[in-house]
Design brief:
2 domains, mainly alpha, flat
Length: about 140
């Protein structure tokens, strides 16, 4: 076996393990702080990315320069934060005392609803946004 193949496979495994580690840490931190088994935080992260891709061209039409990119990222984060507050008020407050399995099912239902809304709003094709102004290379 070629030693470079082993190194590449090791690095691929390390990258995959780090992705799984970050997801597990996110679930652990959310459960530890809120005592809710929340699977929907990844869907809200995805929703923020789609909002950012939508906001960036619209803000670039109004403003010129690299500031509009970062303002649109901030606006997407605020939008998703407000949607998170709405989800907490309408859904999570009702299930704080419920068993963990019920919490998991409720937040997984939110995952399915958010994914379907994203497909309805932005379609099923991949969307590539512009690069950050300082990273054009």
């Amino acid at each position: 076996m070629d030693p470079s193949f082993i190194v590449i496979q090791f690095l691929n495994g390390l990258a995959t393990a780090s992705t799984l580690f970050i997801a597990a840490c996110g679930l652990t931190i959310i459960f530890g702080v809120t005592r809710i088994v929340n699977f929907a935080h990844g869907s809200f992260y995805m929703l923020g990315a789609y909002f950012a891709v939508t906001y960036i061209p619209r803000l670039l039409e109004m403003w010129y320069g690299p500031v509009s990119f970062w303002v649109s990222i901030l606006a997407a984060a605020v939008t998703v934060g407000l949607l998170g507050v709405v989800m907490e008020v309408l859904l999570l407050r009702r299930i704080y005392k419920a068993p963990e399995l019920f919490q998991l099912l409720a937040t997984f239902g939110v995952v399915l609803v958010v994914e379907d809304l994203v497909i309805m709003g932005w379609g099923a094709e991949d969307i590539f946004g512009p690069r950050a102004p300082g990273l054009r290379g």
